[in-house]
Specification:
The structure holds two protein chains of two kinds. Chain A is an alpha/beta fold. Chain A has eleven helices and eleven strands. In chain A, strand 1, helix 2 and strand 2 form a beta-alpha-beta unit. Chain A is globular and about 65 Å long. In chain B, helix 6 runs parallel beside helix 10 and helix 7 runs antiparallel to helix 19. Classes of the chains: A alpha/beta, B mainly alpha.
């Protein structure tokens, strides 16, 4: 390990000398990866995997810094205000593009102050119902909820799960009451106990609960089926297009960072996503690998911003 | 018989040299971060999570679990010696533990805390081994309405049992409650008391609040009166409890263990609530409640046993249902997922060696902790002899590092300073910090569960009395109120609440 790092650094040095002192090889000092989510959580595991592999492919040092708070906005703000030299980058998902519709007075502009460089994974959510619920499919659930005449309920804990449920219920034309939770796990636990009718949950937690027979999984929110659970249909496939609301994780930089560095990062990230070990890891985390081409992440983010604008209007979310 | 076989299987895995080493390592780290204010098990486990990638599943889980309950042991040390909650669940121990230390009983308090924790840890472990599935199904009966009733009961108990002026106590609870409501409301997503500051959207963090209110404020008060008294540090005293202290601690430890085991099982319960509840109960049943807050040994024995019992039994929902009931358990779940283990009932059938190995390691860990901690007490109490002018700057620096490390943000350090000032004012005007903290912890839980229950019942409050468990708790709360209202009780209450 040390040897390979040394040799890469050595090669980098040689290149730098060959190209002259003006073009030192990036990264010549540690790169900070800002992450707005808690250490040990799902997002943190993804970030640490990529940070570790970035060290391998670049020969530089990448450090994950957890700056937790306000749904990741604190970390995004810190990145937006950092020097755009490529040594402060951000790991966050496309949900960031929706935050302006949820929070007013954000001290930065996601679309203007940050550049989406490259995507790497998509983390879908699953529609869960109680094992005792008669519905075996989304269509049957729709009929079941319609039969409850406005007395149906669903649980949500984050803007993503609220958006998932809003898209489903508004397209299916059912009148149900949203019930808020602090943690998705508690909402799912209330689904099992029959307190609420359904909830969207992250794939890894939901599939663990499903394996114990505590919930049934009816659909995933990804565009196509999710690799870890190929037997579960996707919401878009059933006629509930989710737009850009499924979190698409990627690497971002402050606006103004040198294009050369962005190109490098984007190439490295794709290289890592293409590794078989990464693919296996992402599937084990309930995620789908989502490599891109230059500019594709940016297009997805613009699309996500539009989807979030629509869905927050549908859910009648007032920016706070 | 089957239980014995299972335990034998568990001990077979847990006492292998390498796993013993992991256990020891976890316990040592846990004790250390428990002692250090601000740095808690959540941050530590999260930071160590990536290095468990390469370990064996059992070894990784043993180490991480050791950090968690190790912190419960270590946390009492700073609470007793410095009135600083080394770990958030030891905040209650600050009250009477520190007073004991001031009277030269620091060694005794530490010994009782360690022995009580060990007893509670043993009981908690046995409960997991013998009754985990039954206890989990009981915990599953607690839904939003039951929670609301339980929190309401807790708040009423806090008022009824407060010391000194009842008006001040209510004022403090309400103030704590209001601060607890800061942040995003759970049903509507409305931001409250945030003044547009993004750092406040997730509410006020408990750690800087507790450190500022208790630790910092104590330092300021100490410096304030240094000229007049306390020219030297507090007397050190021996580490053995007196016969009288032992006699009073034993029932308190038993009650604390019972309450802690029970509350630990409930989602969101865990160690902090257990400690508060145990303390409140002790005060309620004491012949002379006025000794609390002035170095009552029960005020150390009960909450310290409760927080450790709660720490152990909070594993039950995770191990049997795959539901993490506290943030630490969420991290343990992450650790299991990394190792390819699906938390929940499947562990018991598919990976019995892992399940029983973990349980056996918990007992081994508790034994190690009591062995590590008892001899350390002699060293810890020497800390009291360090001149205060050298000690307090160190504490301040440690607290600032701890507060900063929570979210790599100076905002929390500033917030801690603000709470220090508030705590100083409280001390000056004779307001207790405990009801304030109780309001802060219980208030938001109560509100969240109340709102959710009302949404679930489509606005019909009958939901709280329709459900047997909720109804029982509410009736108990009514009984508590009657305690104040009925004259014959009032006379005893007045004895209890005499101002010093």
């Amino acid at each position: 390990m040390r040897k390979s790092v040394l040799s890469i650094v050595g090669a980098g040095l040689a290149l730098a000398i060959a190209a002259g002192p003006a073009l030192a090889e990036y990264p010549e000092k540690p790169v900070r990866i800002m992450l707005g989510f808690a250490a040990g959580g799902g997002a943190d595991l993804l970030a640490r995997w990529y940070a570790d592999k970035l060290q391998l492919v670049s020969g530089g040092t990448f450090i994950v810094e957890n700056k937790v708070g306000a749904s990741g906005n604190l970390a995004a703000d810190a990145t937006a205000k950092a020097r755009p030299d490529g040594y402060t980058i951000l790991f966050t998902s496309s949900v960031a593009a929706g935050n302006p519709y949820v929070y007013k007075n954000l001290p930065f502009d996601v679309l203007k102050d940050l550049v989406p460089i490259m995507s790497f994974a998509e983390t879908p959510f699953v529609l869960t119902v109680a094992p005792t619920n008669p519905a075996k499919s989304v269509a049957e659930l729709t009929a079941f909820l319609k039969g409850k005449n406005g007395k149906g309920t669903y649980g949500w804990a984050t803007t993503v799960t609220l958006a998932n449920a809003t898209i489903y219920t508004s397209k299916a034309g059912i009148d149900v009451t949203p019930v808020g939770y602090k943690v998705t796990g508690n909402a799912v636990s209330d689904v099992t106990a029959g307190q609420i009718d359904f909830a969207f949950a992250d794939t890894i937690f939901a599939s663990g609960q499903a394996r114990q027979g505590r919930v049934k999984l009816l659909a995933v929110t990804s565009e196509t089926r999710t690799l870890g659970m190929p037997e579960i249909p996707s919401m878009p496939e059933l006629g509930f297009a989710t737009g850009g609301t499924t979190p698409l994780w990627g690497v971002w930089a402050p606006t103004g960072a040198p294009q050369e560095i962005l190109d490098k990062l984007s190439k490295w990230v794709n290289e890592i996503t293409a590794m078989p070990a990464t693919r296996e890891f992402l599937i084990s985390q309930g995620a789908n690998p989502a490599p891109g081409t230059p500019g594709s992440f940016k297009r997805k983010i613009d699309e996500a911003a539009k989807s979030w604008e629509e869905v927050t209007k549908l859910a009648k979310i007032e920016p706070q | 018989m089957e239980l014995l076989q299972n335990l034998a299987l568990g001990f077979g895995g847990a006492v292998s040299p390498i796993n013993l080493l992991f256990c020891l390592f976890g316990c040592l780290i846990g004790t250390l971060i428990g002692v250090l204010p601000g740095i808690g098990p959540i941050a530590t486990i999260a930071m160590l999570l990536p290095i468990t990638f390469g370990l064996s599943p059992l070894g990784a889980l043993i180490m991480l679990a050791g950090i968690y309950y190790g912190a419960q042991y270590g946390g009492s040390t700073t609470a007793i010696l410095l009135k600083l909650p080394g770990e958030s669940s030891s905040v209650v121990t600050c009250i009477d533990g520190y007073e004991m230390a001031q009277k030269g009983r620091a060694g005794a308090a530490l010994t009782i805390a360690a022995v009580g924790s060990f007893f509670a840890g043993t009981v908690g472990t046995l409960l997991i081994a013998g009754f985990a599935p039954i206890l989990a199904s009981f915990a599953e009966k607690f839904r939003s309405p039951e929670y609301f009733s339980l929190m309401l009961f807790g708040l009423i108990a806090a008022v009824v049992l407060a010391q000194g002026s009842i008006i001040k106590a209510i004022g403090m609870i309400v103030l704590g409650l209001l601060l607890g409501l800061t942040g995003t409301e759970s049903q509507s997503g409305t931001a409250r008391f945030t003044f547009g500051v993004p750092e406040l959207y997730d509410g006020i963090d408990f750690v800087p609040l507790a450190m500022g209110l208790f630790g910092f404020a104590e330092i300021m008060t100490n410096l304030d009166r240094r000229g007049r008294d306390r020219a030297t540090a507090a007397p050190v005293g021996g580490m053995m409890p007196t016969r009288e202290e032992i006699r009073r601690s034993i029932p308190a430890i038993l009650r604390g263990t019972f309450i802690g085991s029970l509350l630990g099982i409930l989602p969101g319960g865990g160690a902090v609530l257990s400690a508060f509840a145990a303390y409140t109960l002790e005060k309620k049943i004491a012949k002379d409640p006025s000794i609390f807050g002035r170095g009552a040994v029960e005020g150390v024995a009960a909450p310290e046993s409760a927080n450790n019992a709660g720490a152990q039994t909070s594993f039950i929902p995770l191990l049997t249902l795959g539901i993490p009931s506290t943030p630490v358990m969420a991290l343990m779940m992450g650790a299991m997922t990394i190792q390819g283990i699906a938390p929940g009932s499947a562990i018991l059938t598919e990976r019995p060696e892992l399940f029983w190995g973990m349980i056996a390691s918990m007992w081994v860990g508790n034994l190690m902790l009591v062995i590590i901690n008892l001899p350390l007490i002699g060293i810890w109490i020497k800390l009291l002899q360090v001149p205060y002018r050298l000690l307090f700057p160190c504490i301040l620096v440690l607290c600032c590092v701890g507060a900063y490390s929570i979210s790599s943000s100076t905002f929390l350090v500033m917030m801690m300073a603000g709470f220090a000032l508030l705590g100083y004012v409280f001390a000056k005007i004779g307001c207790e910090g405990a009801p304030f903290l109780l309001g802060f912890v219980l208030g938001p839980l109560m509100e969240e569960n109340f709102r959710r229950s009302m949404v679930l019942s489509f606005g019909d409050p009958v939901i709280f009395v329709q459900r047997p468990i909720s109804l029982t708790i509410l009736l108990a709360a009514v009984a508590l109120i009657l305690l104040i209202v009925i004259p014959q009780f009032r006379s005893t209450r007045e004895v209890a609440f005499q101002d010093p």
